[in-house]
Amino acid sequence: MFPPHNFEANLSGRLHGARTVVAQGVLDGAAAARVTQALLLLASTSEDDVRVLFALHGKQLGPAFAVHDMVSTMTPRVQMIATGRVAGAGVVAFCAAPIEDRTCLPMARFHLHALRASSPSSVHSSSQSAAADAERQRMRAYDVIAWAAGVPRARVEEDVRRGLVLDAREAETSGLVSRLTMRG
Predict the structure, then answer these.
(1) What is the mean pLDDT of residues 81-96?
(2) pTM for this predicted structure
(3) Coil, strand or helix at 51
C-alpha cells in the first residue's frame, strides 16, 4: 500500500497509463477545463483509445459544449462510459461520442432537465440579443441530443420539459447509449 499523501499522484499516473479520464461532479468551467486538459494530454502521447468515466451534471451549456467539441474532434477514439448521474448539460457533453462509443454501467442514470445558456460574450449585448443567443444555444443542445439518440428535436424538447429520468436500460432503448457495460 502506498502512503496516503502519494495517493493522488499514484492514481493520476495509473489512470494516465490506462488512458482513462474520470469526469464526475458538477459540469462547470473548472470541470470542463480538467476534462479537456486530460484529453489533450492523452491525445498528445498516443492515438490509442481513451476512456472517459463520465458522471457530470449541470445546467450551463458553455462547459458542456467545450467538452463536447473536444471529444468530437479528437484523433484518438473516445469511449464515454456513464458511471453515475449524467444530467442536464452533462447529457450534451456525453453525446459527443458516436453511439457505438457511448455505454453505461447498470446503475447509471440520465436526467434530461432545463439548460442554461452561457452568458453573452459582450458586455454591451442587449437583453433581446442575449435572449436570442440563449435560445440558439438551447436549440443547439437539443439538436446534439436528438442527433445522438436518433430522435426528433421535438421529442428531446418534450423530454427536457418533463424532466425525464432514464435508468440504464431506458437509456439504451432511447438511443443515448449503445449498451450496458457489464462484467463477463
Answers:
(1) 98
(2) 0.87
(3) strand
Interval 107-126: pLDDT, tens: 999 999 988 886 655 455 57
Residue with cell 479520464: 21
DSSP label at residue 120: P
Q: In whole angstroms, what is the distance from residue 179 CA to residue 170 CA?
A: 10
CB 164 within 8 A of CB 86: no
CA distances from 172 to 59, 64, 89, 165 (A): 23, 21, 19, 13
Task: Label the pairing between strands 165-167 and 109-111.
Answer: antiparallel
Distance CA 44, CA 41 (A): 5
At residue 182, the pLDDT reads 73
Residue pair 130/120 in contact (Cβ under 8 Å)? The answer is yes
Q: Is the Cα torsion angle 41, 43, 49, 53 positive or negative in sign?
A: positive
Quick one: 118 exposed, middle or buried, by C-beta within 10 A (0-12, 13-18, 19+)? middle
